[in-house]
Amino acid sequence: MFELKYKTPAEWAQVVLSDFDAFLIDHAAAEKKASGMAMSLISHYPNRKSLVRAMADLAIEELIHFKQVLKLIQTRGVELGPDSKDAYIHQIRAIFRKGSDVFFLDRLIVAAVIEARGYERFSLVGEALPEGKDKDLYSTIAKSEEKHKNLFIELAYEYFDKTEVDLRLDEVLSIEADICSKLPFRPALH
Questions:
Q1: With 90 as the cut, is the pLDDT of residue 55 above it?
Q2: Which residue among 110, 135, 149, 152 is buried most deeply as judged by most CB within 10 Å?
Q3: Whether 152 contacts 34, CB under 8 Å
Q4: Per-residue confidence at 164, pLDDT binned at 50, 70, 90?
Q5: Average pLDDT over residues 121-138
Q6: Cβ contacts of residue 16 below 8 Å, gap of 6+?
Q7: Residue 150 near residue 116 (C-beta atoms within 8 A)
Q8: Can you spell out the DSSP letters for 162-184?
């Protein structure tokens, strides 16, 4: 449906694999936060029936991913640890505009772009991992992220004019590319 403007180099995946335990802890936190974001959208927009249905399903799916990653963490004998601040998320959320309609549109578009970045990076992890259950898990999670990216844009098209959505999406993709190009590689999703 849309393409990211910044392509993560394959070297990023090597940084992830160099401290895969740290990556798993960050990934688990990201899944928890994604589920919470879906529930937040339900709370803030309870009158948007399509959104409520979609976000209820998304919240559950993200929690299932959390549980899968948690199992992998525990199998490796690692402790979950506290959530940490995510500079990428902080920076991209800073672009939300004021005003109820544009704020809602930005939430949908930013969520789509975050999911697209997740799709790209989980795919890179899946490609870099050796054959086995971990590789299969990351390939499956990547496919889910791709569906989520499209879901948020489809919802934006339902609630807003397509031209308005496409223009703002292009702006957000440019901002997101700039953010990603400046962040250091670390064993984390962003």
A1: yes
A2: 152
A3: no
A4: very high
A5: 95
A6: 23, 124, 125, 128, 187, 188
A7: no
A8: HHHHHHHHHHHHHHHHHHHHHSP
Instruction: Convert 114-153 to b/e letters by CB count within 10 Å (16 or more is b).
Output: bbbbbbbbbbbbbebbeeeebeebbeebbebbbebbbbbb
Lowest mean pLDDT among 77-86, 109-118, 163-172: 77-86
Among 154, 143, 139, 170, CA closest to 55? 154
Q: Which of 175, 137, 122 is nearest to 4 (CA)?
A: 175
Candidates 91, 72, 87; CA nearest to 27 is 72
The CB-side HSE value for 4 (13 A sphere, CA atoms) comes to 23
Measured between its terminal Cα atoms, the distance across the chain in Å is 22
Q: Residue 19 in 3-state DSSP? A: coil
What CATH architecture applies to the domain 11-182?
Answer: Up-down Bundle (1.20)
**Whole-number average pLDDT of the chain:** 96
- The residues spanned by each domain of the chain are 11-182
> What is the rounded (10 degree) CA torsion for 143, 149, 152, 153?
-120
Q: What is the mean pLDDT of residues 9-32?
A: 97
pLDDT score of 82 more than 90: no
